[in-house]
Write a structure and sequence with these properties.
The protein has 177 residues and is of the alpha+beta class. It contains six helices and seven strands; from the N terminus they run H-E-H-H-H-E-E-E-E-E-E-H-H. The protein has a seven-stranded antiparallel beta sheet with strand order 1-7-6-5-4-3-2.
Length: 177
Amino acid sequence: MYTVLTILGVLVALVVLLALIAPKTYHVSRSIILDHDPVKVWPYLKFLKKQQEWSPWAKKDPNMELTFMGVDGEIGAISHWNGNKDVGEGEQEITKIKEGERIEQDLRFFKPYKSQSDCYMNLDAVDGTKSKVTWGFSGKNKFPMSIMMLFMSMDKMVGKDFEQGLQNLKNNLNSDI
């Protein structure tokens, strides 16, 4: 009985220690320089329906169910999706817009697991005729997910998708010339 209690005590202490040292937050972002004026790029960031045209997840599940609520491109507009195991189920809601410069969204996942993140896209002019788009998101790692993040990297899990999405955006803009 003493051995079982000792093992149980060590396991509890290990979990507590891991919870204390585990990362409590995450932030992932990627940027790309586009050969287009910010005025041309902005609609691709502001409107939820336009975002679907370059979303890496839309390509992972072309049969994903999409519904839109509210006025697209305005605060409170929501895009809800329900797809395969690669995209899950969730929604994004526009929460803040700085016209022509930044859009912020609340990103909520329902499946395969519940989570919430703050998503943003920044648009900056570069050399007068080019644009820099920075796409990122951040959030909190709640227990027990925080312990799992000691062994996993949100940057590695999502970073490549952000890179692919930004490349899709560049390709779409180049094909619209």
